[in-house]
Structures are given as C-alpha cells and as structure tokens.
Amino acid sequence: MSRAGFENRHDAVLEAIGREITHGDLAPGDTLTLEHIQNRFGVSRTVARETMRILESMGLVTSRRRVGITVQDAAAWNVFDPRVIWWRLDGNGRDTQLRSLTELRVAVEPLAASAAARNASAEQRTRVVELGARMRGLGERGLLADFLDADVAFHTLLLEASGNEMFAALADVVAAVLRGRTQLGLMPRQPVPEALDAHENVARAVAAGQDRRAEDAMRALLGEVREAMVPPDTGQLSLD
Amino acid sequence: MSRAGFENRHDAVLEAIGREITHGDLAPGDTLTLEHIQNRFGVSRTVARETMRILESMGLVTSRRRVGITVQDAAAWNVFDPRVIWWRLDGNGRDTQLRSLTELRVAVEPLAASAAARNASAEQRTRVVELGARMRGLGERGLLADFLDADVAFHTLLLEASGNEMFAALADVVAAVLRGRTQLGLMPRQPVPEALDAHENVARAVAAGQDRRAEDAMRALLGEVREAMVPPDTGQLSLD
DNA sequence: CCCGATTTAATGGTGTTACCTTTCGATTCA
DNA sequence: TGAATCGAAAGGTAACACCATTAAATCGGG
C-alpha cells in the first residue's frame, strides 16, 4: 500500500537527498546535520544516521564530528552505483550521464559480444538468434514498443552471456539507456533496415561462436557514435 | 594511531563480514542476526545495524524481519563497488575478479585513450608524453619499481583525461590490477621493447589529438589478451 | 594597542542502551 | 489441508554519555 519503492523510511530519505545531491540542488561543500534531516522528514535520529551512512558509502557525503554531513564533489561519487546512475538519469545530470553511459556501451558491448560468442550456453545461442529474428519482424511491422522490449532483451542477453559479471551488471543500465533514448524521441520512428541487419549479424556470429566477427558486428551496430553523440539534431541516429 | 583504515567500529565489522561474503566463507542463503554480530564483534546494536545497512546497499545481504540478514548470491552484488572489488582481489574471488577486470580494461582503455585524444588539457597532453618517455628510460634501465609507478600514472592519466567520469572512476582499479599483476610475478623481469614503443605510440597520438590512432595504439598495447588470459603459463604476457 | 597563543565553550557526530512495534515463518490445532 | 496463534528478529523511537572539532574568548608579550 506504500508509495512505490518507498518501503521503509530510509528509502524515502535516501531517495530525496540522493536526488538532491546528484541533481545539484545540494552543492559540494554544503552541509547538513542529522537534526536537520530528522526535522525535515520527521524521522528518528536512527533513521537519519543509517541513511547518512548509506549516502556516505556511495561517496555522496562525508560525515565529520562537529562539522556535520558534507556533500562531496562529484569526483568522489560511486558513479557505478545503480542508484547514482538512476538519479543522474532523471535529473540535471541526465545529459552527461547519458553521454558517459553511451561511451561505456561502445566500449563494453563489443567485448561482451565477443565473450558471449565464446562462453554462451546452447540456450543462449538459440535465444539470441530468435531475438534477432523477432526484432526484424517487429521492426518491419513498426511495432515499436515490442521492438524496444526485444532490443532490451537482446542486449541484456549478450551482456549476461559474456560470462563477465561486471559486464552483466551493466545490463539494467543499458536497458535504461535504450528505453530512455526512445522516450526522449532520439530514435527514428521506424527502425532502419541497417539496424535490423546489424542485430542479426551479431546474433549469427555469437551463435556460431565466432568471437571476432561478433565483436566487429557489435561495433558496427553501435555505429559511428562518436559523431552521433555530439549533435543530437538528426533524428536518424540508431546507435543501439 | 588506529590501525590503518579501521577508524571506527563500523569499518572493522564491515571489512570482516564483507570479506567473508566476497571470499565465499559465507555462502548465499546463510543468515546472520544482529545479535550474532553484536556478540561476535562486541559492538552495539546500532553499529551492527548501520553496518548491515551498508552491506545491504552493496547488495551483499538482504535484511528481512523474522528471518534475519541473508547473504545474497553474487549476481546481486554491486560488483563495481570499489570495496567489493578490493575484497575479491585479495581472496578467493581473486581469479575471476582479475579476469573480469582485465576484460574490462581491454574494453574501456582504448575508448578512454580515444576520448583523451579529444578532450585532454594541454598539461595532460604534455604529461602523457613525458610519462611515455620516462617509462622508456626506466624500463631500459630495469628500474622496475619506478617503471611500475610511471605505468600506473600513465594509465590513470588517460582514464582521467577521457572526460568520462565513469572511465575515471576505474583508475584506482586499473592501478590495482597493474600492481597486483607485478606482485604475482606475471610480468617479465624487464619490460619488452614492444611495450615501451606501444606506450609512446599512445602518448604521441593522444598528444596530437588523433583519437582513432590513440584508440588503435592502446588496443595494440593491451595486446592479444584473449589468448594471454586463458593460460598464465608463459612469463611473457605484457598486457599493460 | 595589536597580534599571536592558549584556554574555553558550543556544536554535532559516535556509540550505547532500553523499549516498543511490525512482520512473517513456524507451530499448532481444527 | 488450511487457519489461528506464537514468537523470533528486524524496524523504529528515544534518551543518554562521550568526544573530536572548531570557533570564540581570553590572555600575555611586544
């Protein structure tokens, strides 16, 4: 019955302050006190303290005696912490976060595809081909919502099949980027044929265990993102 | 005066339990209770609770009423959390962690070099060339300790100069891999000339702002890690 | 009278204890 | 088999002593 995701008091406070810091509403050097937080959110000192400890462990604040809780500079943040990523993705940090994540995708996904070609299970190999075909079908029929789901599943599968748990840990984030990009209208209304081909190329290479080809195909799929990332003016960038 | 790093009670408990989980001494599904922790470490309930909150925020445990604190499966861990990485790097997880990180380096560093060629400041450009030259001097004279320091500085600089804060956040980890690898005797006693050339190639490309060349040079520098990662038998892999 | 050094006092996190509430697995009983 | 009950353990509140830190106040020497 509680508001989505805010199971306990901590989450509410954490969410609020985490957002404020990552969105820049609280600037580095600003200080809070536990009492401040208690009053503002109507929570006990215990809750305030435990929340601060979590924020501290994410690198968003430091806590010192007599001085209070100090907001840290962005350089100290655990920028790979999923919550930090989410917060930055829907606040002021969105722009740099999207750029960073896209660049990270360009770095990681080709290697993940390569690793998947070596390490994927039999089921994963058949599934990746299925998903490639499914994307073609949905894409050609213009069923964008379903197409997006398949796209997310495709990239998630490869990251997980890579056998590298650090790659796999990026799956949720990549999904968020794909979805967020569509929401923002950065995608063409109908997937371009090249994108469909590219996905099927990757799928075939992975299924066949050809790691080098899978890597190259994924790199082709991600396209010339270097140029695409600078000007978001043309509606034709299809860098999934 | 306190023992390195264990400033407060939390850190001691966190360190101990975090290690036990990431090292596999505590298996997924195992449960603890706060009382258990209080007794074992002689700390108050508050400290036990706050420590658990941090572990929970790292995905290492979940806490449920009536059931206690349950150790999570590795799939739920925040594998990018620096502390999780450190712990895995000096325990049972070392092997998979080193492989994962090396694969991550191969993915990220070429793109970081490319980005650095585009975004580095004037000072950073001159410094990267200096470091390349310094590595040659030290390498040829066989001053391994200093060479390693310069090597770490070189890779750190590029990651930071990339302008991508997620790349920059990996600097400490890359440094740990470089140092750890040397400690483990995985490096040749004298840097091979190819490695020295490779570093200077990267440095020159970055300094000249040639992103494509910097990317390729870094990829060459990292070498054919795919093969090198499988058998650690030959002492000749120089994949920095 | 001014400035640096030393003492003092206020502040706010650290750590502890005690207590009540809520949840939910397990036991019991129909 | 299923429903009512019990109780273990976390969730949450409150009040405390403690102590590191900082800033103000005081003091002393030039």
From TrEMBL, chains A, B:
Taxon lineage = Bacteria, Bacillati, Actinomycetota, Actinomycetes, Pseudonocardiales
Superkingdom as given in the UniProt entry: Bacteria
Concerning InterPro entries, the annotation shows:
GntR_C, TF_FadR/GntR_C, Tscrpt_reg_HTH_GntR, WH-like_DNA-bd_sf, WH_DNA-bd_sf
Listed PANTHER family: GNTR FAMILY REGULATORY PROTEIN, TRANSCRIPTIONAL REGULATOR, GNTR FAMILY
Q: Look up and give the organism this protein is from.
A: Prauserella halophila
Q: Which UniProt keywords apply?
A: DNA-binding, Transcription, Transcription regulation
> Can you give the residue ranges of the HTH gntR-type domain?
7-74
Name of the molecule in the record? FCD domain-containing protein
